Amino acid sequence: MTDSLVTLDNLTVRFDDRPAVDRVNLSVHRGDIITIIGPNGAGKTTLIKALLGLQPVTEGTVQRAPGLVIGYVPQNLQMEGTLPLSVRRFMALSGRNRTECHQALTRTGIEHLANASVHHLSGGEKQRLLLARALARKPDLLVLDEPAQGVDINGQAALYELIRALRDELRCGVIMISHDLHLVMAATDKVICLNQHICCSGFPADISHDPAFIETFGRSVAESVAVYHHHHNHSHNLHGDVVSGQTPTMDSHGDSCDHAHH
Amino acid sequence: MPIIDTLLNDFFWRALIGGLGVALIAGPLGCFVVWRRMAYFGDTLAHSALLGIALSFLISVPLNVGVILTCVVIAVALVVFSRVRALATDTLLGILSHSALAIGLVTLSFMPDVRVDLTGLLFGDLLAMTRDDLLWIYGGAATILVLLVTLWQGLLMSTIHEELARVEGFPVERLRLVLMLMFSLVIAVAMKIVGVLLITALLIIPAASARRLAHTPEHMAGLAIVFGFVAVGGGLALSWHLDTPAGPSVVVTAFLAFLVTYSTTVRTVA
Fold it and tell me: For residues B235 and B250, what is the distance between their CA atoms, to the nearest angstrom?
């Protein structure tokens, strides 16, 4: 339909010969909402950073469309308390004019905080501020790294709803990382399950039946994706008695994984 | 300009004018030291200035040039080493900081025919300010102010969130390098005022005092300059009336201003 905004071709990132991201092929088009899920240490953030050009690539290529404007919403805004900064000033640093900044704040519902200090914002307000800042840039591609972190469960649903609406308004592509499985399933077009390589990908409804998905997240998760609020996969490993035996090790993937075992 | 000439003939006025010039750039740069948590880094660069002095004598280049070059080399080495991540940054800074100071002192002791005022180097020799020093200070200050004004947005943005700045197209690595160069320059010219052991104080104490009252980054930088002026003026007055060493007196005044600011203002973090 349209040319891709960004294309990853055989992307591999290795740290000390250990692949963090292994031969990933992926492209994002306008209108897409792609969500990357996967256990801790699966390389989700590394993949996003390679896509953004923040992480050097070991092999493969990242192709961004010429003139692509990326709106990046990082995992968090950890700021030194010694730097006095208001929400308005932080927005102005995006280089966009007052009206655009104000519109973006209004769209994310925090325009009443324009004069507040960024140090006094709650987790959810910070996420909305980061989103507003990405928005003010009128991005072609919105990249979000766990946008719902530190946001309560009602806020999470609203946030994903907002991201969907923004996709429609801006006609942009969206790629994000999430841990909130059941919300992801409701709010996304395409899910990519990453565990170094792409284990499986597809529509939310299909993917929960995929053997590789079940293998990675455990049957109980897959079966109750609609109601189960997913916590970190590794907690199963550490306190294994709850869902013991269902957490895969790295070399025990499902049949659909056509990768070389490491 | 006979008035200026008369002023410049007086060692006290030379000291004051030089000190104010340094405070003018130490304020905004000190803010970056505080914002980026680089106090220990500044200390390391300052200590390496002594090594720079020793090397300048060894290869006969002007002291300021030797100090700037040594600081730049150490700064770049720090950036490279910290990327390797073999050691924690504070360990690395500790090693380089004290080694540079020690190597500087040892090298100086090998040159018995070079007569240096070690106390002056370590704690400053504000009252021995020459016209040449003033030229260096105001030349350096002008360069740094121009750079700061031109690159302000990028420097600020990469301080707030490095990755966000990079995605938004700011040349983060180059800005970091420019910041290092500015630190090296300010250290080379500030050494005359407070000496290598106290330079970091001149950078961070006025900035820390300013934080209490400031509501924007620019406001904080401006207030840091004012606090720097107060420190230099007060320190010189102290030195004049009580015959105390000038450099330490400047730092003591800065510290007193810091204490007054923190005890009299209600805590409102903007």
Answer: 4
Q: Best mutation site among B34, B163, B213 for testing chain A: the one with the most A CBs within 10 Å?
A: B163
B269 in any annotated domain: no
* Per-residue pLDDT at B209 exceeds 70: yes
Q: Could you tell me which of A87, A47, A125 has the C-alpha nearest to residue B160?
A: A87
Residue-number span of the structural domain to which A23 is assigned: 1-69+144-256
Tell me which chain B residues have a C-beta less than 8 angstroms from the C-beta of A120: 269
Output the domain CATH number for residue A188: 3.40.50.300
Pairing assessment for the beta strands A190-195 and A197-202 based on DSSP bridges: antiparallel
Measured between beta carbons, the chain B residues lying within 8 angstroms of A88 are none
Residue with tokens 């979000």: A144
Contacts for A25 with CB less than 8 Å, ≥ 6 apart: A8, A9, A10, A11, A198
What is the complex's ipTM, to 2 decimals? Answer: 0.81
Cβ of A82 and B208 within 8 Å? yes
pLDDT, tens digit, 9 for 90 and up, residues B164-198: 999 999 999 899 889 988 998 998 888 878 888 88
Q: What's the one-letter identity of residue B19? A: G
Instruction: Give the number of other CB atoms < 10 A from CB of residue B254.
Output: 28
Q: Choosing among A73, A75, A83, which should be mutated to test the B contact, i.e. which has the most B CBs within 10 A?
A: A83
Domain count, chain B: 1
How do beta strands A197-202 and A59-64 pair? unpaired
Q: Which of B160, B163, B208 sits opposite A83 (nearest CB)?
A: B160
User: Rounded to an integer, what distance in angstroms lies between the CA atom of residue A241 and that of residue A238?
Assistant: 9
What's the CA dihedral at A69, A74, A78, A84 to 10 degrees?
A: 20
Measured CA to CA in angstroms, residue A75 lies from A47, A129, A143, B202 at distances of 14, 12, 10, 36
Q: Which domain holds residue B56?
A: 2-264
Residue finishing a domain among A123, A138, A153: A138
In a domain, A26, yes or no: yes
Identify the contact set of chain A against chain B, taking CB-CB distances under 8 A: 49, 52-54, 70, 72, 74, 77, 79-86, 89-90, 93-95, 117, 119-120, 133, 137, 143
Q: Quote the Cα angle for A91-A92-A93, to 5°.
A: 90
This prediction has a pTM of: 0.83
Three-state DSSP class for A224? coil
Rounded to a whole number of angstroms, the distance from the CA of B145 to the nearest CA of chain A is 20
Question: DSSP assignment, residue A86?
Answer: B
Q: Which residues of A touch B216 (CB under 8 A)?
A: 84-86, 89
**B207 contacts B23 by C-beta, under 8 angstroms:** no
Predicted confidence band of residue B93 (pLDDT cuts 50, 70, 90): confident
**CB–CB contacts below 8 A, A to B:** 68
